[in-house]
Amino acid sequence: MSKIAKLFKGSSSSSSSSSSKSKHHRSKGGPSPQEAIHKLRETEEMLTKKQDYLEKRIEQEIMIAKKNGTKNKRAALQALKRKKRLEQQLTQIDGTLSTIEFQREALENSHTNTEVLKNMGFAAKAMKQVHENMDIDKIDDLMQDITEQQDVAREISDAISGPFGETYDEDELLAELEELEQEELEDSMKSMGGLPSVPSSKLPSAKPSHHATTKKRVEEDDDMRMLESWAT
């Protein structure tokens, strides 16, 4: 055998061994959910086409039985027998399709749940990585520093907005002003010779004037005249 033949033989054997290894590894790991769902859909399509074919065959056998009902009973009976066998196959396919459909839906739900859990786990890892870079003690210190700086800023604001220069007690100033007013009042009374004396005797009561008495008498005369006019 030539060297070239040996070389090709060795390469072909190595490639066949590698392909067999890959097939063995794939069969060991099993198909992916997508591959299994795809295979189930292909099977559903194949069985659906088989259903359509059987339904057409059943219609044909019914036409043959009707055509040969009175002329050729043997042919009509054979057609009905074939129809029965076809109906049995159709019933079996219906049951198989229901099973495959249920299996496909369960696999799709499982695949969806797996993807959801995978994404949730990915998000949890990302959140954990973010929290690993955070120190609770440092956060507490930072919040304490912020609070202290806010207090300092508030004190500075109060100091700036307060009155500038010396401050006095307003109540004390008002009391002093009241004393000065009292002293000024006393001085003015002294300069006027003091307060006038209150008389000890009782003052005489005022007598009604002559004009008031005359007016009252005129009013009484008018009233009497009005009464007399009413009486007549």
TrEMBL record:
Keyword Coiled coil: yes
Gene3D superfamilies attached to this UniProt entry: 6.10.250.1710, ESAT-6-like
Topology with respect to the bilayer: Peripheral membrane protein
GO terms (BP aspect): cilium assembly; late endosome to vacuole transport via multivesicular body sorting pathway; protein transport; vesicle budding from membrane
Biased composition (Low complexity): 9-20
One Pfam entry name: Snf7
Any one Gene Ontology cellular component term annotated for this protein: late endosome membrane
Highest taxon, organism lineage: Eukaryota
Protein name: Charged multivesicular body protein 4c
Organism name: Zoarces viviparus (Viviparous eelpout)
